[in-house]
Amino acid sequence: SENSLESLVSIGNICRSPIAEAVFRKLVTDEKLEHKWRTDSAAVSDWNVGRSPDSRALSCLGNHGIETAHKARQITKEDFQTFDHILCMDESNLRDLNRKSNQVKDCKAKIELLGTYDPQKQLIIEDPYYGNEKDFETVYEQCLRCCKAFLEKYH
């Protein structure tokens, strides 16, 4: 569609998905395509609603010159009806999202793992929450590769 829509989702919406959202938004802006995309991220759970991303996620993005003002939110029924793509980080996200989408009539979103687009074939983007800075950097690099490939496919 003219306005392709994109949503990025993970469990708590404070580590992986805000990184993916910010990375994708920067790619879209750099390519001057921001008028064609609406980018957001949301959580499957309601644990962290209203919270800013993890400070390690923010510092990782900052190291790459990317800022985000994202506040965590939970995915809604409307998300399934308005977004073209819902991309998630791991198998448990995928299961939860598919289950939620089955309860939504006229679900339009295509739900898949962001890692499906990774040229290096790393299907799962592991949660870095219990890890260290290096793990956040790994998430950033995976998100960057996947988002670039995704954008190339749908641009």
UniProtKB/TrEMBL annotation:
Its main location: cytoplasm. The active site is at R16, D127. One of its GO terms (molecular function) is non-membrane spanning protein tyrosine phosphatase activity. GO terms for cellular component: cytoplasm. It holds the Pfam family LMWPc. Its EC number is 3.1.3.2, 3.1.3.48. It comes from the Eukaryota. Keywords: Cytoplasm, Hydrolase, Protein phosphatase. It is found in: Cytoplasm. The keyword Cytoplasm applies. It is an enzyme of class 3 (hydrolase). It catalyses: O-phospho-L-tyrosyl-[protein] + H2O = L-tyrosyl-[protein] + phosphate; a phosphate monoester + H2O = an alcohol + phosphate. The keyword Translocase does not apply. Residues 9-153 form the Phosphotyrosine protein phosphatase I domain. Acts on tyrosine phosphorylated proteins, low-MW aryl phosphates and natural and synthetic acyl phosphates. Belongs to the low molecular weight phosphotyrosine protein phosphatase family. This is Low molecular weight phosphotyrosine protein phosphatase. It comes from Oreocharis arfaki (tit berrypecker).
